[in-house]
Model the fold of this input.
Amino acid sequence: MKRLFAFVIAGFMSQSLMAAEVAPDALVKQVSQDVLGVLKKDKDIQNGNRKKIFDLVETKVLPHFDFSRMTQLAVGKNWRTATPDQQKQLTDEFRSLLVRTYSLSLANYKNQTVDYRPLVAQPGDTDVTVKTLIIQPGGDSIPVDYSMRKGSDGWKVYDIAIANASLVTTYRGQFNNEIRQSGIDGLIKKLADKNNADDSGKSKKL
Done:
């Protein structure tokens, strides 16, 4: 799932496209096509060049994702009990965890393509779901849905569901278990340890 998830995120990267200028479904389609073209040509990324992959994610993924909202939703009801400093630490560590997950898996792109579904929304809607289908050569197609919300800086992704499995919901279960055992600070430490282990090349589960 991590490999597919990284591919999905890669489809959201764009250096020159401003999210505020386009509709959410158009944003998904345009940036996906732009980035898939890069992935098909960039041998360094395909071969797992970590620095180049990290740079790509930092410069092109982050502008299209609302990590603050993603973290708040993943932490759930426990978010209200966290101090502002704890909330910031949670957001920073969760962001790092997701970026590393995507980055370390980008090289697994193997000529997948994306089928874009018609957007079902009403004029003036500010919270929509953009549906796509990942077509895998020789494998089953996988539905991928982007939950997006429009703010003052345009459309941002705040959740992704792969084959109906929500990223936010999946992490919420893990986070709640950790908070019950070790509290908010325990979750922050767990996330930080995971990120540090990834940096050192010693991957460990959350």
